[in-house]
């Protein structure tokens, strides 16, 4: 009896220690990045374009590029993932072809992002002559995002009890109607959470973008909203360095005198943005769940 | 003790009384056969109970009557409704299910308001008139004996109701479609005795307008509410007779042993 209790205490102590270690590492990393980076963040830093050789450059274009790329990636990958997720969760028969599809998605999700980047570089940038561009970057990020988002949507839909589908069918509703009007609204909180979390991942991705969206951020004219104009921020064919790529670039070949400060400040901005994504995913997911399930 | 599954007693009805009839229904889950030669006739405006041990095929049988088993089980044979074989591939199953509704074992209201739970399918079927919808909501909730409990908060989420109320809402939702036949798959098995009594009361009132076929594990329930009872065993229909006869004077030894509880 005594021995059992002792064993239990030892096991508990070890588990608590491991958990504390994980938290400590995270706190240390976040603290280090924020403490060294936040002092460099100023309004000017956020709204000035970067400079290649002189001090005092900002990250305005990189911030815009990161968000624009994120939106484009979600615009491409969300509809595809939604369709694939619905198919896998509710329509796919349990056979070899379906398990093959699942396996392919799993393999795709474990591809190193630098390989995805090089693939899109060879196929889109070089072969199809798109050049370093936001479009190529969005395609690479779509490859990178698609499997995880599909998996997330499939799981969210599967988490809705099958009884709901049967309930709809028994009322003479078609399967498609039941899925779109009853199952999807109920799966929505999970889907939204997944989309925002994947947005955080996409936002921080660098390796897939180095050879696709490129490593330069040509100045853009934020008053020009003609999507076909080369200086317009919306132009899909311009090279677009993102925050994460900017950090990598500065650290590997930055020659401006304040490179360290810019790198630290950019890292802090990136981390803060991703933290906001994660927290809002939690909040929005909970909010939607409450709204959909409890009394209104 | 050995029983001969070929020993059967199956009641035959007049043509006029039939609401639904199955002919040579054989149901397979892959290689495994779950039902053998189901030949049953169900009388209009009556309650028919399907009883039998777990795995006897009664739920499988019920779920094939409005083809809810589609894609899971392979159903061979014919199901005649108004002279039409609704098991034919040519039938529009979604249209057919408007005539043959179903209530499930676990209450499954949609995560919408009480009101929307009932109006949702009606709206999809093109009933847009607000007054008409409100009227249907009221009558079907009254028929399901839920109106008095929820009339003041129809906009409340259906998930906030108790299990018994949720199940009556599901019944209301099903009868709002004005089906001919209502299939109930152990509708009270997940509920407490008081809710069960309320559901039974509701069913007895519903049979004035609908033909009810109910699967139940509870033999007292079958004897309390049903006019006819079917006894299933290992995928075979063993005995089908008036409930009174099944419980007081079973024709087959197997039925008698099952009902008196000295089985196997």
Automatic annotation (TrEMBL), chain A:
Pfam families: BPD_transp_1. The chain crosses the membrane at residues 12-35, 67-88, 100-123, 129-149, 259-281. It is found in: Cell membrane. It is a multi-pass membrane protein. GO terms for biological process: phosphate ion transmembrane transport. Residues 63-281 form the ABC transmembrane type-1 domain. One of its GO terms (molecular function) is phosphate transmembrane transporter activity. Keywords: Cell membrane, Membrane, Transmembrane, Transmembrane helix, Transport. InterPro entries: MetI-like, MetI-like_sf, Phosphate_PstA. GO terms for cellular component: plasma membrane. Belongs to the binding-protein-dependent transport system permease family. CysTW subfamily. This is Phosphate transport system permease protein PstA. The gene is pstA.
TrEMBL record, chain B:
SUPFAM superfamilies: P-loop containing nucleoside triphosphate hydrolases. The keyword Transmembrane does not apply. One of its GO terms (biological process) is phosphate ion transmembrane transport. The keyword Cell membrane applies. GO terms for cellular component: membrane. SMART domains: AAA. Residues 20-259 form the ABC transporter domain. One of its GO terms (molecular function) is ATP binding. Keywords: ATP-binding, Cell membrane, Hydrolase, Membrane, Nucleotide-binding, Phosphate transport, Translocase, Transport. Its EC number is 3.6.3.27. Transmembrane segments: none annotated. This is Phosphate ABC transporter, ATP-binding protein. It comes from Ligilactobacillus salivarius DSM 20555 = ATCC 11741. The gene is pstB.
């Amino acid at each position: 009896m005594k021995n059992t209790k002792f064993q239990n205490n030892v096991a508990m102590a070890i588990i608590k220690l491991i958990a504390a270690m994980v938290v400590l590492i995270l706190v240390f990393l976040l603290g280090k990045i924020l403490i060294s980076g936040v002092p460099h963040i100023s309004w000017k830093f956020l709204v000035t374009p970067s400079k290649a050789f002189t001090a005092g450059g900002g990250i305005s274009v990189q911030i815009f590029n990161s968000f624009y790329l994120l939106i484009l990636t979600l615009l491409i990958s969300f509809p595809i993932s939604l369709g694939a997720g619905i198919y896998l969760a509710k329509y796919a028969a349990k056979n070899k072809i379906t398990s093959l599809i699942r396996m392919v998605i799993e393999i795709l999700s474990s591809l190193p992002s630098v390989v995805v980047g090089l693939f899109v570089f060879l196929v889109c940038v070089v072969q199809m002559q798109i050049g370093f561009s936001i479009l190529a970057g969005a395609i690479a990020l779509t490859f990178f995002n698609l499997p995880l988002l599909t998996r997330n949507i499939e799981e969210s839909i599967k988490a809705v009890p099958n009884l709901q589908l049967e309930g709809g069918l028994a009322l003479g509703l078609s399967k498609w109607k039941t899925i779109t009007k009853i199952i999807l609204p109920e799966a929505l909180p999970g889907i939204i959470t997944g989309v925002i979390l994947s947005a955080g991942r996409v936002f921080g991705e660098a390796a897939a973008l180095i050879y696709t969206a490129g490593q330069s951020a040509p100045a853009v004219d934020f008053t020009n909203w003609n999507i076909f104009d080369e200086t317009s921020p919306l132009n899909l064919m311009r090279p677009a360095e993102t925050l994460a790529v900017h950090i990598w670039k500065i650290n590997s070949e930055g020659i401006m005198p304040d490179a360290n400060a810019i790198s630290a400040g950019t890292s802090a901005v990136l981390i803060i943005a991703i933290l906001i994504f994660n927290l809002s995913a939690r909040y929005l997911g909970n909010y939607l769940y409450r709204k959909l399930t409890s009394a209104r | 003790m050995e029983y001969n599954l070929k020993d059967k007693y199956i009641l035959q009805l007049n043509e006029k009384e039939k609401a639904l009839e199955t002919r040579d229904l054989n149901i397979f889950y892959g290689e495994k056969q779950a039902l053998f030669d189901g030949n049953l006739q169900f009388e209009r405006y009556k309650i028919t109970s399907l009883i039998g041990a777990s795995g006897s095929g009664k739920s499988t049988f019920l779920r094939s009557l409005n083809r809810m088993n589609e894609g899971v089980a392979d159903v061979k044979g014919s199901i005649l409704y108004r002279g039409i074989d609704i098991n034919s591939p040519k039938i529009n199953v979604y249209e057919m299910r408007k005539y043959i509704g179903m209530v499930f074992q676990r209450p499954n209201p949609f995560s919408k308001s009480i009101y929307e739970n009932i109006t949702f399918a009606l709206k999809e079927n093109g009933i847009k008139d607000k007054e008409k919808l409100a009227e249907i909501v009221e009558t079907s909730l009254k028929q399901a004996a839920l109106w008095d409990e929820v009339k003041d908060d129809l906009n409340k989420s259906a998930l906030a109701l108790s299990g018994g109320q949720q199940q009556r809402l599901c019944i209301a939702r099903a009868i709002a479609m004005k089906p001919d036949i209502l299939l109930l798959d152990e509708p009270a098995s997940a509920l407490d005795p008081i809710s069960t009594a309320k559901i039974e009361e509701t069913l007895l009132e519903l049979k004035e307008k609908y033909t009810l076929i109910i699967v139940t594990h509870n033999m007292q329930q079958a004897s309390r509410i049903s006019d006819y009872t079917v006894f299933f065993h290992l995928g075979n229909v063993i005995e089908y007779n008036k409930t009174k006869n099944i419980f007081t004077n079973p024709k087959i030894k197997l039925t008698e042993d099952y009902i008196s509880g000295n089985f196997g």
